[in-house]
Design goal:
The chain has about 400 residues and is α/β, with parallel strands linked by helices. The protein contains 13 helices and 15 strands. Strand 11 and strand 12 form a beta hairpin. It binds 4'-deoxy-4'-aminopyridoxal-5'-phosphate.
Length: about 400
């Protein structure tokens, strides 16, 4: 038996995908022209699947801050935060995040994935129970495992189901930690946080919200879905990433809990990995300041979301959530999704192809994410190319149907 035999099914499925066109898991941006355009397969391509919500990756101030930090602090920290990997920059960023979110304390992690691992594994232990929304990101699933806590999944965005499950659990002396996201990454729908807060208060549970896709995007000041719904004080722990609105890499957790900083010497994904590089931290610090100072970026993002949403719904696509910067189109089946994704790419449009089991309810999705940096002309082109692609697929279907008659 070979050690890779266990992947036979998944490899077979991957081979089938390759027969249709490009490898969706190996797309290469050979060159980046801006935060919204790059070269893919030698072709100039509009990027509509990058989570670059603020379009800040080519911001001159962020680039300058990153270059200065490399020159001043070097290319990497070569150590973990609890050894030689804490620089003044990391502390300055933690202070800026805490100040922005209005939290007592913030902790920086090396990625958003590790922020979720580190927060969940640090907060919950084997005597506790984590109640997790079933559509949660993989990093939350993995954080649950690492924590050793019992895990109970509740139906996606269903506070009544959460309430039932908490009631059923009763009291075993352990803590209850409810974990949800602000905006869900795949479908772009939002958590009903106000209702979740009512349930968690009733049961004396703690509430954790991953605002990875909502930081900078939602709320009057861009603090996320908790800000939008007016429940920030009731969210005990918040986590997020620097790899989306802030255009870099890294993640954070934040809280008002007076003992929160104990995670710095109890959370393994914080302690046993190198800290983010000085250039990353410096660009995030600058990006966060820009985001705070320029709310008009958020307005541009929402205008762009509106334009794409209206255009795609006008073409008859089934969109999985109300209008927002993540626009996921439900495709009828895997073959159509893969074919449409390839045709879009051949026509100079990159979106995310998302297939089961990585999607909720086994859906096959073309997932778009908007940027404040997209122009109205780019979005018009994207809509026009979606229209052309659906026409090609409809024509092919008709030919096949006629051939079968
Ligand atoms: N949480 C959510 C909801 C995400 O969508 C992602 C990334 N897609 C992460 C966490 C992980 O973030 P990062 O890419 O910074 O590791």
């Amino acid at each position: 038996m070979d050690i890779f035999d266990k992947y036979a099914t998944v490899s077979g499925r991957h081979d089938e995908l390759l027969k249709i066109g490009s490898d969706p898991f190996a797309v290469c941006f050979e060159e980046m022209y801006s935060s919204t355009e790059g070269r893919v397969n030698g072709r100039r391509t509009i990027l509509v699947g990058t989570n670059n919500y603020m379009g800040i990756t080519f911001d001159p101030e962020c680039i300058e801050a990153a270059c200065d930090a490399i020159k001043t602090f070097g290319t990497g920290t070569t150590g973990s935060r609890i050894a030689n990997g804490t620089y003044g920059l990391h502390q300055a960023l933690e202070e800026e995040i805490a100040d922005f979110l209005g939290r007592r304390s913030a902790i920086v992690f090396s990625t958003g994935y590790q922020a979720n691992l580190g927060m969940l594994a640090g907060l919950a232990g084997p005597k506790d129970t984590i109640l997790m929304d079933s559509d949660s990101h993989s990093s939350m699933y993995d954080g649950c495992r690492l924590s050793g806590a019992s895990v109970v999944r509740f139906r996606h965005n269903d506070p009544a189901d959460l309430d039932r499950r908490l009631t059923r659990l009763g009291d075993d002396g352990g803590c209850r930690l409810v974990i949800v996201e602000g905006i869900y990454s795949m479908l772009g729908d939002r958590a009903p946080l106000r209702e979740f807060v009512e349930v968690k208060k009733h049961h004396g549970a703690f509430l954790f919200v991953d605002e990875a896709h909502s930081l900078g995007v939602i709320g009057e000041n861009g603090r996320g879905v908790a800000e939008e719904q007016g429940v920030e004080d009731e969210v005990d722990f918040v986590a997020g990433t620097f790899s989306k609105s802030l255009g870099s890499i890294g993640g954070y957790g934040a809280s008002n809990h007076p003992k929160f900083d104990v995670l710095r010497f109890t959370s393994r994904p914080y302690m046993f990995t190198a800290s983010p590089s000085p250039s990353n931290v410096a660009s995030v610090l600058t990006a966060l300041k820009r985001l705070r100072a320029e709310p008009e970026r958020r307005q541009r993002l929402w205008n762009n979301a509106r334009q794409l949403y209206d255009g795609l719904s006008g073409l008859g696509f089934e969109i999985c959530a109300p209008m927002g910067p993540v626009i996921a189109l439900k495709m009828p089946d895997e073959a159509t999704a893969v074919q449409a994704w390839n045709l879009l790419l051949e026509n100079g449009v990159y979106v995310n192809l998302a297939l089961p089991p990585g999607t909720p309810n086994g859906a096959c999705l073309l997932r778009c994410s908007l940027s404040a940096a997209h122009t109205a002309e780019q979005i018009d082109q994207v809509i026009e190319r979606f229209g052309a692609v659906t026409a090609i697929i409809a024509d092919q279907r008709e030919m096949v149907a006629q051939a079968g008659e």
